């Protein structure tokens, strides 16, 4: 047995107090309060009861939510395993006025070649390793999971004005973040929803002599490379971690559950051209939150807007006139991201007669994100594509009407493909380019719908405490790795 990998904790574990244990027959999850006096779970600020949470201080209400989540998670875990200790505290995590890291969690240690290990020479998160072994491998000397939550959330400079909702009923107001959902997510990571093998370098965890694969590797399959991470080199795994929407989970439990959880309908842009076969194909898109959906299929030539002095850029931040207006009328307008809001670009194209809009990104990377904004007067669909895909189209579409008529675009929803899965029905993992530390690889892709608990960002429509089909795919993945 080996345990060379310990995650550093934010605060020293001194003067710890244990929370209540739950579930006499299932595995017990115990919350370890690692906060200093007056901080986090020990915050004595008086509060009124909310949503079934009867705690009278801010710290007590926070702990009540965690204890409730521990109880919910314990019901899904195998009976008879050793206790799972979850170290928990409230440090200052990364945030700005418009975004914030709500929390983070992961295994405190990893183990291999323990009694009953399903595969030799393979790393397992400590909570899972203990359960498979039927014993606490470090004899109770360390917590199995470390978890941290943003103590500054809602304060100036940290997602201003947005606080955690501490009710137990799931009825979080629109200006809050449901703490119970965040906890369900983070405990999921601690239980093993975590790649362990480095996505940023592709390197495996070493015991000081040799490096060994993690259990996740055998279920991570790259459609481009045609192999799993288990069969890749470090360099191949590094490349796979930034291969947008091409890394899938091939575990049997998740794959079998995809049809029950995800909805059919993946937004796409299809491009056809008889004179330019290099641009023909299916393009990944980010759909707009405004205007109509892509449920109604739009097919038309693509007309490129060029309205800037450089003769290369089309921002569409002002009403389109002259050649630009003529070129987009009855067509799908191709414009560039930048300078003004997405809604302004789309509305200007719509006013010029466009039947749809494609916004080419102005920064590298992928997959293409969605487009936010509000304008009830927009009646045409719009999507966003990557910088590279935009450059590919713009190399052909130079503003010439004849060439535009030869390049046809189809904006639609592919009803044969589940939203969040590949064409074979295998769930997509999150692999944005560039790599996002703490998010890449160890989450489901953001294109999933219905929205999933283990996506990298919280969604307001997530049902509280749900980790199983037909509501979610969290537990099936944990079962694939050995739970």
UniProtKB/TrEMBL annotation:
Name of the protein: Peptidase
Q: List residues of the PA domain.
A: 313-393
N-terminal signal peptide: 1-26
This protein's UniProt keywords: Glycoprotein, Signal
Entry superkingdom: Bacteria
Q: Which Pfam families match?
A: PA (PF02225)
Q: Tell me the classification of the organism that encodes this protein.
A: Bacteria, Pseudomonadati, Pseudomonadota, Betaproteobacteria, Burkholderiales
Q: What InterPro entries has UniProt attached to this entry? A: PA_dom_sf, PA_domain
PROSITE patterns, alphabetically?
A: PROKAR_LIPOPROTEIN (PS51257)
């Amino acid at each position: 047995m080996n345990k060379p990998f310990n995650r550093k904790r934010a605060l020293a574990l001194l003067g710890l107090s244990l929370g209540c244990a739950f579930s006499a027959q299932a595995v017990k999850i115990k919350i370890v309060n690692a906060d200093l006096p007056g901080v986090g779970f020990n915050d004595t600020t008086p509060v009124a009861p909310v949503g079934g949470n009867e705690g009278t201080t801010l710290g007590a209400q926070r702990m009540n939510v965690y204890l409730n989540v521990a109880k919910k998670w314990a019901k899904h875990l195998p009976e008879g395993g050793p206790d799972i200790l979850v170290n928990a505290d409230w440090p200052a995590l990364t945030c700005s006025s418009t975004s914030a890291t709500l929390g983070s969690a992961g295994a405190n240690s990893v183990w291999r070649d323990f009694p009953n290990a399903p595969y030799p020479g393979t790393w397992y998160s400590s909570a899972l390793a203990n359960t498979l072994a039927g014993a606490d491998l470090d004899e109770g000397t360390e917590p199995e999971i470390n978890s941290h939550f943003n103590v500054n959330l809602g304060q100036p400079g940290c997602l201003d004005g947005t606080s955690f909702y501490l009710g137990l009923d799931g009825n979080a107001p629109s200006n809050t973040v449901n703490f119970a959902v965040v906890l369900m997510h983070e405990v999921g990571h601690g239980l093993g929803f975590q790649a362990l093998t480095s996505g940023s370098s592709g390197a495996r965890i070493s015991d000081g002599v040799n490096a060994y694969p993690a259990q996740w590797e055998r279920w991570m399959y790259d459609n481009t490379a045609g192999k799993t991470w288990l069969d890749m080199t470090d360099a191949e795994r590094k490349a796979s971690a930034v291969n947008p929407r091409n890394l899938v989970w091939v575990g049997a439990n998740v794959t079998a559950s995809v049809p029950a959880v995800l909805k059919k309908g993946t937004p796409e842009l299809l491009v056809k051209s008889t004179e330019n076969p290099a641009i023909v194909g299916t393009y990944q898109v980010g759909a707009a939150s405004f205007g109509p959906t892509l449920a109604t299929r739009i097919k038309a030539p693509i007309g490129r807007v060029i309205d800037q002095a450089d003769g290369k850029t089309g921002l569409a931040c002002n009403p389109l006139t002259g050649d630009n207006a003529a070129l987009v009328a009855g067509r799908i307008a191709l414009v560039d991201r930048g300078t003004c809001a997405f809604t302004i670009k789309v509305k200007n194209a719509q006013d010029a007669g466009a039947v749809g809009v494609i916004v080419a990104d102005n920064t590298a990377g992928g997959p293409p994100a969605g487009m936010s904004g509000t304008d009830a007067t927009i009646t045409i669909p719009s999507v966003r594509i990557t910088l590279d895909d935009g450059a590919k189209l713009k190399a052909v579409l130079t503003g010439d009407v004849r060439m535009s008529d030869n390049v046809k675009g189809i904006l639609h929803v592919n009803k044969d493909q589940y939203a969040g899965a590949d064409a074979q029905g295998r769930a997509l993992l999150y692999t944005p380019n560039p790599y996002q530390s703490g998010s890449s690889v160890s989450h489901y892709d953001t294109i999933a719908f219905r929205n999933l608990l283990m996506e990298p960002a919280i969604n307001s429509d997530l049902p509280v405490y749900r980790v199983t089909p037909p509501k979610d795919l969290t537990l099936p993945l944990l079962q694939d790795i050995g739970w």
